[in-house]
Amino acid sequence: MRKIDKLNAEIVKCTKCTRLAAYIREVAKNKVKRHAYEKYYGKPLSGFGDVKARLLIVGLAPAAHGGNRTGRMFTGDSSGDWLAKAMHGAGFASQPSSQSNTDGLILYNAYVTAAVRCAPPQNKPTRNEIDTCLDYLEQEMKILKNAHVVLCLGRIAYDSVCKLLKSRPGKFGHNKVFACGKYTIITSYHPSRQNTQTGRLSQNQWNAVFKKAAKVVKC
Length: 219
Description:
Blueprint: H1 3-12, H2 18-29, E1 48-49, E2 55-59, H3 67-70, H4 78-89, E3 110-114, H5 127-143, E4 149-153, H6 155-165, E5 176-180, E6 183-188, H7 193-196, H8 203-218
Parallel strand pairs: 2-3, 2-4, 4-6
Antiparallel strand pairs: 1-3, 5-6
């Protein structure tokens, strides 16, 4: 078994955070009306993509009715739509949409993961829950030996990566670039509806981040 497969099998079985474990099971049982006839995944999520990738994308956590439903990060919700479209435009994805874990989406030279592996209530994991999940991200970064560019989507992703690297190269902001050891860190606002529907994050701003990532990956 590959190291990444062994890690992913461990993640799926995780119940370390009792609040989150209970919440994702509850959401999977008491579905929202628009997905009432679908079977929810309802388990912690591993990352996905190209294990030889040079770009590692770190988000916050699965969405309750997105990844927690479909079984894949950034899949089946508006954040997933934003991510897939931008990655496709920059040459990191085979298609501009991410609807299900069987939709044929393939990532090129990119791997997608998150700081927290279970959907948290109100999208707000506690500090203890974030720290508990940190070991999984650390193991992924060790396995993904070719990854030298880390795109952090949101402050929690950035804080988690900085904690692992024992460094805080600069203040978090949109489309900023920092050097940190062997890594180049790029930061972006998360493509949540809270940011995209309020105008805090525009499509042009979002696309610019991935154009920059594509250039840095080639360096």
